[in-house]
Amino acid sequence: MQVERRKPLAANIGLLGVGHATYWHQFDGLLQIMHEKQAKLHTKLQHYEKNIIDFGLIDNSEKAYEVVKAIYAADLDLLFIDMLTYATSETFAPLVKALQIPMVLVALQPLTAMDYAKSTTFIQLCNDDICSVPEFCSVAVRMGKKTPPVIIGTLEGDAEADLELASWCRIAHVVHDLKHARIGLMGHVLETMYDMHVDPALITKSFGCHVVPVEPDDVMKQYRHVHEEELQLMKKRILSFFDTPDPQSDSITFMLREEDLQLAAKTAVALEKMIEERNLTGLAYYYEAEDGSEMRRLVTNFIVGNSLLTSSGFPMCGEYDLKTLMAMLILDRLEIGGSFAELHPMDFARNSILVGHDGPHHINIADCKPVLRSLSKYHGKPGSGAGVEFKIQEGPITMLAITVSKKGDLKFVVAEGQSVDGQIPATGNTNTHAHFKPDLKTFLRRWMAEGPTHHFALGTGHHSIEIAKIAAVFDIECVVISQEKEIRCETSKTNT
After folding, report:
1. What distance in Å separates the CA atoms of residue 33 and residue 340, rounded to the nearest whole number?
2. Residue 306 to residue 257: CA distance in whole angstroms
3. What is d(CA 380, CA 370) in angstroms, rounded to the nearest whole number?
4. Nearest to 438 by CA among 482, 387, 377, 475
5. Which listed residue, of 4, 48, 104, 336, carries a Cα 20 to 30 Å from 22's Cα?
6. Where are the alpha helices (DSSP H) in 198-302?
7. Does the model's pTM come out above 0.85?
8. What is the CATH number of domain 13-178?
9. pLDDT tens for residues 343-399?
10. Are 453 and 196 contacting, i.e. CB atoms less than 8 angstroms apart?
């Protein structure tokens, strides 16, 4: 079973065609073909995002300056520039100078190759999509900007190009929510965890989102007014998503107790009502409260509710880890999961390492139905109650840690590996056997050398290239850990 997304993914994606005005009176019918080409790309993009804003075709500098105003008004997250035929860079210079959004040049020509024996200038112009790309890239550099990414291929029947279009639409979903998110921050850092500290203003500076102070009482207010009907519906929902097996080797685990299910369900209802009231996109939290108090029972039993919320597209992050919350948000909007994780014991017999945590988890990427166990204690933290246990699907995985560089800016640390088959400890926590090239020790040394926090977000598939593109959009340093045998010195700002 899959937890349904609370809100559909969305972005404001623009499409703009470029051409050369001189051609239209020289070649009758060419302009109409250009409009038809652009319409085909529009239709293709709508498979990945319904909200495609088409700004038409511009073919001179006057139109370029005018369209900048419309693009500003549309609050775009990404702009595709359709390289319909040769276009002078007067159509591009005003855009690249003024706009701060990612722009992707799309050079998808209609023909796989021209029939040279029957070719004409008209046919060439219909397939001249790549002709202006060098000029546009040069002008970007002269305007003090990075060269724009380019999608190259054919308009129809090109699976690689289609995957690139889909990838950029997913990136637009990430960009949209990073810019517009309202991230809740509740409680305080677990004492002595210096790697968790971060200035909320740095998050706003880096991504543009707002960090909202949240009080534990905001949840308690809802908790006190949970109706019996709401409670019973949540209990049924929880039991439909989780198994509740007998305990195994760990003496602090028990078959899920009714009182723990009751408390987890009531807390989950309160959390959902609170985030609706505060209009939040995600929540990072840690709070202990007074020993024996009802508040402690509440705030130490978020694990089940936060796993359901995380899986529905509302990331929740324990231990007040605001940076990893943003990493979880990025992976979720890429539709690859985003579980809260850290490094657990190494398995030298298998050349793997366990990666997991005591919550929260993205149960949509579990390899089978996740497990609920009652725990008599949460190791390293106060409280007791239900814990979530599973391993993620076997196959490619991506880790994203967001840390702080020595300059005080955010930094992405990314690694790709494999989730491999293997038994996990029945401790009421998630764990997955992860294998990394070239070998476990070398990988771990390279990971540690980049100064990551001890937490990271864990997703399925290999997505380091997409994450590096997202980092570039926000001008954030990104290091992708090498899988090669030789040690490489990472020197450039974004290393892939």
Report:
1. 50
2. 19
3. 23
4. 482
5. 104
6. 200-207, 216-223, 228-241, 258-278, 294-299
7. yes
8. 3.40.50.10940
9. 999 999 999 999 999 877 899 999 999 999 999 988 778 889 999 988 999 999 999
10. yes
How many other CB atoms are there within 10 angstroms of residue 52's CB atom? 19
Which residue's entry shows tokens 């390492």? Answer: 353
Instruction: Tally the C-alpha atoms within 13 A of residue 257's C-alpha that lie toward its C-beta.
Output: 12
Q: Over the stretch 158-211, which tens digit does the pLDDT of each residue have? A: 999 999 999 999 999 999 999 999 999 999 988 778 888 899 999 999 999 999
The domains of the chain are located at 13-178, 181-495
pLDDT tens digits, 201-251 = 999 999 999 999 999 999 999 999 999 999 999 999 999 999 998 888 888
Give the Cα separation of 458 and 400 in Å (integer).
7
- Identify which of 189, 185, 191, 381 has the alpha carbon closest to the alpha carbon of residue 291: 381
Write out the DSSP string of 332-384. HHTTSEEEEEEEEEEETTTTEEEEE-SS---GGGBSS--EEEEES--TTSS--
Collect all residues with Cβ–Cβ distance below 8 Å to 134 and sequence separation of at least 6. Answer: none
Is 365 within 8 Å of 315 (Cβ atoms)? no
Chain centroid to Cα 338, Å, comes to 8
Share of the chain above pLDDT 90, in %: 87
Instruction: Annotate 183-218 with DSSP letters as a single string.
Output: EEEEE-PPTT-GGG---HHHHHHHH--EEEEE-HHH
